[in-house]
Amino acid sequence: MSDLQKILKEEYKRARNTVTLDTDLLIKMVSEALEMPALVIERNDKPKDVTFTLEMIPEIEVSELGWSDVRTPDGGGDVVKGRERQLLESYLANILGAEQGRGLDSLPQQLAKLSSFYENPTQYLAQTESRSEQIQQAISLLVFYKTLTKIIANFNASSAGFSFESFLATLLDGVQVPANTGTIADFYAGGTDGVPVSLKLYNEKSVEVGGSFVDLVGDLVNDSKDNRMTYLVVMKNLKGGKDDLSGSLTFYQFDFTLDNVMNILMDTKASSQACIILPLTDEGVSDIEAPARIRITPEDVQQRFAANLGSLSNYADTVVQSPYFQYGEDEMLELATSSGTLRTYKNLKSRANRENMAQILRALPGLEQLTDEQMQQLILQIGASLKQAIADIQQLRMDRKAQIADLLPSFKGMRIPKGADKTQRAKLSANIGEAASASQKFYNEIEDKERKKATLLKTNGYLNELQFSINRSEVYDLAQPMAKLEIGPKAIQQMLNETRQLLNSEVFAIFESLRNLSDNLNGFFATGLADTDKANSAIADAQNIETQTEKAKSDK
User: Fold this and answer.
1) Which of helix, strand or coil describes residue 545?
2) Residues 367-407: pLDDT tens digits?
3) Phi, psi torsion values for 156, nearest 5 degrees
4) Do the beta carbons of residue 389 and residue 337 sit within 8 Å?
5) Three-state SS at 188
């Protein structure tokens, strides 16, 4: 007897005496027994007329945390992966093969397989003689396309980027990199010792690849990562809404290295060219030691905030224990401004914002008895303490830039200020281009690796913490398209239709029993676990699933 049958019979016997079964718990037990997502199909009256739809394809819960949950248990031991990541990995392993590595080097091969399946599913699957392996391949590839479409169609640009990052990291057996850790990488393909990858997902018409030049240089001088940073750029060319999305994703890949970084940025716009300018003198690069970089971490801001609040309020120790008052925590960001590198609490002159914060504060021990006047005073003290912490950090950065300008006057004028007119922009761009060209020539003549690394640490972009960017045409110059994937419900339905005969002949009975099992379980729950017919039918469905699965397993 299958585990599912045992579960249903045991719970049915309990329900006959008293209806105390927790429905959520039973659903969880059923899901675990099946060890696969629920499938839904639409049908007409006759089984042979079943219509295969997108709902039939197994569903992966789109959860960045689930996919990127790669942790080492306390006390050591093997890495623990979240359930959703394990489920996705099981499907993805079928695309390339479990025996092959899934690092960055495997990406072209995996994308080629995905593209080949879309273009001709029948021909692609015919490469495998075993019917069971054909089914395995078909379902895995359909799951990939459905999950990818779900990410792109159901989320806004920001959340889609995060989820896509998790998805690609899983595809490449990667480990995601937390934000603000001093690297421009989003994940390491192939594990923590793998290739650092910066992933960019943009609309094709508005591509702007870039980031912190400081972080890029930090990666390039890092010997443990082979002194390179791989950029994976995915351009979206889509139309339609969530339900009728169609279009393609085109993949491009190029590397920044110690040898090419100057050449790449020399061929960009002036603001990026400014990053590579060196403080050149007649003797070479100026040997003046610049002031140390001021790194800003959530811990630094929190420490200053707590100290400021402690000087103003006797309740500071209680307040800062709450995640709502710990800088950078998700709860704190719910109360913070929505933009800016350094974020403060939303305008506390607003009554609604003050009331929201007061409600949170009154839930903290010792603060529930504060009078309204005391509470308002505490709220203003909290707001002022964080603002002062941010202001102090910003002042330190401004002071450092002023010191650099005094020490290295050649950097002055190497930026285009906002509001500059056309004539000013043209003149400044020419000056920047000339200085960047001279710096490029000097740098490229350096042969020693350690000298190259030391020289990058004296660039304008590194010392003044500038941003760089590369537009669409520049990406085209750097890389050829690696692959193009068609996505959207229409594309998936086309692939599903072309695999219908294979799926009908081998897995129809399983899908049918799964559909009936879902219907009968819903009926059983809806009657408060009292409908014995539904319970018995569900048990029969479970038995059919077991029988047909065993048949499919042996039908190789």
Assistant:
1) helix
2) 999 999 999 999 999 999 999 999 999 999 889 888 888 88
3) -75, 175
4) no
5) strand
